[in-house]
Amino acid sequence: MTFPMNFIMQIFKWIKILTIIQREKFHNCIQIHTVEYHQDIEKIFVLEEYNQQGNLHDFLKNNQNFTNNQIINCLLDIIKGLQQLSQHQYMHRDIKPQNIVFDGTKFKLIDFETCKYYGQDFSKLQSRIGTFICRAPEVQLDFAYSSKCDVWSIGCLLYYILYKSFPLQNYDPLQLLLLYQNNHQLKFPSQIINKELNGLLQQMLKIREIDRISLNTLYFLLKIIKCLIKFNINNPEENLASLIERIQLIMCSETNQEICKKIYICFKTLLIYQINTENQNDQQREKLKRATQEIIREFENEQIFLDLMRQINQQIQV
């Protein structure tokens, strides 16, 4: 039996990404034990780790009370998995509940058949792929796309977690085409379940790729929200929702280096402001101080911050 060359090439591309995942043992990708290719029948046999907890779809059915912290940890795990693939210049391109599994401690990516090597040039990525209901507009329209297509898919996941449905599941293909071509904004439910995450969701589900939040920006924002929620920072002077909105504006308009610097300064300034606010009691001041210090520690662990810390600490003292 003779197989088409493009089929054979696809097989070997798939083997390559599976071999990388097996070798690198990414923490947020399913562990692959063996990969065997049987040329006589043109099939790949993959032995993966067993996950008794099932996929994200099953997890949500069995865990109706998914806390804010759990949601954020889930999204951070997914992003880490994508970043681990990105280290080898691969994109997943099919993020959906069925392709996320839970091993009891963390969420992991599975199903790497749609992974694509992009090298240094995102413009090469133009094939329509992925699950329709979570597929980004630029992919659906056969435009060139980048890792922001995965941000859209993560946004669909977050929407599904919050509202138990997908944002565009009631649209037919023609309606979707008109929505995308005219750059109409998505309509969100009038009942806002979570202000902070809902604001972030709107940044993730921008129709135009250029307007959409980047994967790294999303990662930083989720870490900030996680720290603020942990300490329940929410008061009339500077509530969490408006703070996140302000940081989003900063992060969507600056380079990575400027993002880091301005976020750090933002929280230093916030700390100074809150400590000196007369209506704050000692307990509130201490709570805010610990929250801000934890945020700073979180970002100090990021390589991109290390060089900036010395410069900024010389300029701002608390």
UniProtKB/TrEMBL annotation:
Keywords, comma-separated and alphabetical: ATP-binding, Coiled coil, Kinase, Nucleotide-binding, Transferase
InterPro entries attached to this UniProt entry: Atg1-like (IPR045269), Kinase-like_dom_sf (IPR011009), Prot_kinase_dom (IPR000719), Ser/Thr_kinase_AS (IPR008271)
Domain called Protein kinase: residue spans: 1-222
PROSITE patterns in the record: PROTEIN_KINASE_DOM, PROTEIN_KINASE_ST
GO terms classed as biological process: regulation of autophagy; regulation of cell cycle
Coiled-coil stretches noted in the UniProt entry, renumbered to this chain: 274-301
Pfam family for this entry, one: Pkinase
GO molecular function, one term: protein serine/threonine kinase activity
Top-level taxon of the source organism: Eukaryota
Gene3D superfamilies reported for this sequence: Transferase(Phosphotransferase) domain 1
UniProt name for this protein: Protein kinase domain-containing protein
Upper taxonomic lineage: Eukaryota, Sar, Alveolata, Ciliophora, Intramacronucleata
